[in-house]
Amino acid sequence: MARKIRKKLGEILLEKGKVKAEQVEAALEQGRATGKRIGEVLVETSATTEEAVAEALAEQFGLEFLNLERAEHANRIDAKLIPDDLVKKHLILPLSKSGGRLKLLIHDPMDLELLDLLRFRLNCEIDTAIASKGQIRLFIEGAGSGKSQLSTSSLVTDSIDKSVDRSVDRSVDRSVDRSVDASIDQDVESAPIIRLCQRLIIEAVKGRASDIHIEPKKDGVLVRYRIDGACIVRDTLPKKMQSAVLARLKLMAGVNIAERRIPQDGRIKLNVDGVQIDFRVSCCPAYHGESVVLRILRPDSVRIGLVNLGFEPDQLEVFNKVIRRPNGIFLVTGPTGSGKTTTLYSALDILNRPDKKIITAEDPVEYNFKGINQVQVREAIGLSFPIILKSMLRQAPNIVLVGEIRDREVADIAIQAALTGHLVFSTLHTNDAPSAITRLVDMGVKPFLVASAIQAVMAQRLVRILCEKCRQRDPDPDRKALALVGITPSEVEAGNVCKPGRCDACGSVGFQGRKAIFEMMIMNSEIRELAFNRATVGRIRQAAIRNGMRSLLGDGKIKILKGITTPDEVAKFAQIEGFNPNEISAA
Fold first, then answer.
1. DSSP string, 437-466
2. Strand arrangement, sheet containing 93-98
3. Which of 6, 87, 340, 382 could form a disulfide with 332 if both were Cys (CB 3.0 to 4.6 A apart)?
4. Which burial class, exposed, middle or buried, applies to 575 when counting CB atoms under 10 A from its CB (0-12, 13-18, 19+)?
5. Over the stretch 130-141, which tens digit does the pLDDT of each residue have?
6. CA 432, 438, 441 angle in degrees (round to 5)?
7. C-alpha distance from residue 425 to each of 220, 226, 521 (Å)
8. Exposed, middle or buried: residue 195 (CB in 10 Å: 0-12, 13-18, 19+)?
């Protein structure tokens, strides 16, 4: 069906004989120079009246026009329907309410931000009619002096803040679950801000984004997606949409939309293409307004299989042996966003069998697993990692996962659990595997406990992998990049060093997806002796390499020479020591 083309405002006024053609042309030119709408310019230059423009707007948008100078139109105003504060602040008048829909008299049908804010505050759908701004203002001022039926009622005796809080609470209690948990396709088509927010979310999910960043700036709202670890600018929304967009996202997340001074956390559940997706939402006050980040938690992301994580065959064999040990601690280290949780969940997914009892302590619980007892840390009520761990051990688990070892108390309990016959998985924030030993000792854990309880430590990073459809062999790789990762010319000749191409499959980025590079340190008698004697990281690393540990850099080199990733990607996380770029330049 062909889409009906909406007439321009100037055309309607010309047809009605309200303006002349030269006046329209002059108004258009002045509007382009000043940024004003044509209707505003025509009224300011006395080319036509405000009422004529309002009537033309009503025809343009297919809305009813009311002339408040006519008694039958003025008598339709129903003062009891909305708070007086909203009437005065936004220059709107209530007409009627039926079946959960409120009809309002407005003067600007293009102010979509206002309409969405009113939907949020009044918790109902809104229909509109149009009157001129001047007539609405005169009617409200007349009401203030007792000249019309609009008067203060019991509904507006409270402040606007209390009214907002009540409507927000009702909305969160009664409608958030219905509007959020419903299928995307069933959302309200007449709500532009709702559709905008959902479009951004759906697009991010389908585009393989891990995060959505909504960041207010001085002159707009920056929207960025994090795809394969890199932030990509999606759009900059007009500043006037900031309040409505942030309010909509906060409402969906179930947090207080009236609170802008302190950080808040919430969750959203949405059905996208038949798959339920969870979003962890963080709201943080910033200089130009609240910054909102939605972290996308896909249920299938932790069940991709160990092979797809990036393990080389020999590493995979070692990893499978480690996670099947009867007791001890297995640590995964790396910075935030390096895939530690995904690796441990993948291991738990393999071990999750009816004959094994698995308990986790997490902050927060990001993914739900059938058959695994997961406990959410809640510091506010005293449910901390140590409290949960002590309780967990009384439940006779076979396997325990501690989301993160943050301090000595948690480390001590985890080690005691390992020494009393439990297999303990956890994460630690260190740059490499050997550093985990010294980090635990620095926390105050006794060296002999570290030496006896730790079974293995694995460090990892995530690197972008080349798009399989457009990657191409690099006949002349950058020598500095190769030197950074220690690849020699002979290795280049024997290998398959590739570079990114451009195709529709990867959005002309050249990369699609990420895999991890690993270094696995297995504890042996030599490393345990070094840990007991508080040896330096350097000495522990040397011993681990003698014992067969392949470093992050070594694992990255393998993936470069296989054409899986590029030297630049690996060099972001691992480089050879003592690299001198001047030597390459001189050569």
1. HHHHHHHT--HHHHHHHEEEEEEEEEEEEE
2. 64-65, 125-130, 101-106, 93-98
3. 340
4. middle
5. 999 999 988 888
6. 145
7. 44, 28, 15
8. middle
Residue 177 has pLDDT above 50, yes or no: no
Q: What's the pLDDT at 83?
A: 85
Q: Please name the residues in contact with 576: beta carbons below 8 A apart, sequence gap of 6 or more.
A: 483, 484, 485, 486, 553
Mode of pairing for the β-strands spanning 64-65 and 125-130:
parallel
Nearest 5°: the CA angle 479, 481, 482 is: 65
Residue type, 206: K
Average pLDDT, the chain: 84
E strands, 443-543, are 454-466, 472-473, 498-499, 511-522
Burial of 124 (0-12, 13-18, 19+ CB in 10 A): middle
Task: Identify the three-state secondary structure at position 500.
Answer: coil
Strands of 26-173 (E only): list them: 64-65, 93-98, 101-106, 125-130
- Stated pTM of the model: 0.63
Q: Which of 498, 524, 525, 521 lies closest to 511 in space, CA to CA?
A: 498
For residues 66 and 382, give the distance between their C-alpha atoms in angstroms, rounded to a whole number.
60
Assigned token pair, 419: 């020494």
Bridge pairing between strands 511-522 and 454-466: antiparallel
Tokens of 110: 């293009």
Whether omega before 216 lies within 30 degrees of 0, making that bond cis, reads no
Q: How many CB atoms lie within 10 A of CB 330?
A: 21
Q: In angstroms, what CA-CA distances link 273 with 4, 151, 192, 234, 389? A: 30, 49, 21, 21, 38
Amino acid at 439: R
CA neighbor of 253 nearest in space, from 205, 292, 213, 306: 292
Cβ-contact 311, 346 below 8 angstroms:
no
What residues does 128 pair with on adjacent strands?
Answer: 104
- Of 169, 228, 224, the residue nearest 464 (C-alpha): 228
